Amino acid sequence: MSEQTVFPALRYADAKAAIDWLGRAFGFEPRVVYDEGDVVHHAELQVPGGMIMLGSVRGDSSEYQKVAPPPGSTSIYVVVEDTDAHHARAKEAGAEILMDLHDTDYGSRDYTARDLEGNVWSFGTYQPWSVTH
Known about the structure:
Elements: E1 9-12, H1 15-26, E2 29-36, E3 39-47, E4 50-56, H2 63-67, E5 75-79, H3 83-92, E6 96-103, E7 109-114, E8 120-124
Parallel strand pairs: 1-4, 5-8
Antiparallel strand pairs: 2-3, 3-4, 6-7, 7-8
């Protein structure tokens, strides 16, 4: 089987504000942003070891716009080294904390927050690649 890589793709009503906020709250850095006025056609935001893609919701009737999920309907898990520091950064940026810092029964330290358009983000130390099932 050939190698495959997954990049979550999100849509935002205000993608420019999302890019700024995701950086301040969760540490994402823009890799590339293709925009025109208030519309972000495509953006790639990265953190060490991962990347998301995002763009603006547009009023056009393209095939993708017809089938794409509505903004704020995504849930993503991100592995972080220092959950406590990450949580503090998110709170300082005004993230709505849905589940406060906690230790799980499987050895992870996690928290969950909502972004400015409703997507749910969980952050923790659980690394799926390191577990053998």
